Amino acid sequence: MRKLYCLLLCILVLSACTTLDQPTPTPTISSPTPTTEPTHQPTPSEPTVTPRNPEQEVLARAAEVILLLKNQDMTGLAAYTHRVVGIRFSPYSAIQPDDMVFLKDEIAGLMADPTVYHWGIYDGSGLDIDLTFAGYYAEFVYDVDFASAPQVVVNQRLGPGNTIDNTAEVYPGMMVVEYHFPGFDPQYEGMDWRSLRLVFKYCQGNFDLVGVIHDEWTP
User: In what order do the strands lie in the sheet containing 87-90?
Assistant: First the structure.
């Protein structure tokens, strides 16, 4: 009986070993049928917003800006300033690469700013224009009452002179509103004319101010 028990035990052990020694079959994994993903359709870009009547809109915008300049309201002017490029101030129509530029968040405090800036050179004498903003404003921004100028035009030049006008090259495709006095004293026969040009860039539904150009007759 004991021999029979031992024989059965050996058979069971051999059977188990044989089973363990056999390689486990690798299950076959069927690849899922590839599905065709829908082709991505780019979101159509929003239509470019353009003013319905650019000249009327920019004239209305300029009328608000010229009153802010008249009242020295620099906080108000900051709201009209282009958010990225700021405002470039040019003392003459020949715009220079180093003309002073102030960003939107700098505009409000300019009248009280005691810093003396270099704005270029006086046409004719060649002397440096070294002034605070308030001093520059008095000479090269609002030296006459431009808000009451008898002539206001868009994208035209009224002030004649020998100075090169490179506004179109510096501000391509932008709108320029000119406030112009043809002269003040008859004895000067128009050689005492004055102009102030406001340059606007259309941005997100508004004309933002990017340039203030003073112009006058120079020898």
Answer: 100-102, 87-90, 206-216, 194-203, 175-181, 151-154
Label the pairing between strands 206-216 and 100-102.
unpaired
Strand partners, 201: 208
Are 82 and 104 a contacting pair, CB within 8 Å?
A: yes
- Smallest Cα–Cα separation from 193: which of 203, 204, 175, 180? 180
CB 124 within 8 A of CB 219: yes
Residue with tokens 């608000």: 64
CA distances from 38 to 33, 35, 41, 44 (A): 15, 9, 9, 17
Are 149 and 156 in contact by the 8 Å Cβ rule? The answer is: no
> Which of 41, 46, 108 minimizes the C-alpha distance to 74?
108
CA 75/CA 73 separation, integer angstroms: 6
State the pairing for strand pair 206-216/194-203. Answer: antiparallel
Sign of the torsion angle spanned by Cα atoms 164, 64, 56, 181 = negative
8 A C-beta contact, residue 144 and residue 194? yes
Burial label for 58, CB within 10 Å (0-12, 13-18, 19+), is buried
Residue whose tokens read 């363990």? 20
Per-residue pLDDT reduced to its tens digit, 138-173: 999 999 999 999 999 999 999 777 778 999 999 999
| Number of other CB atoms surrounding residue 194 within 10 Å | 20
Q: What confidence tens digit (pLDDT) does each residue in 59-90 have? A: 999 999 999 999 999 999 999 999 999 999 99
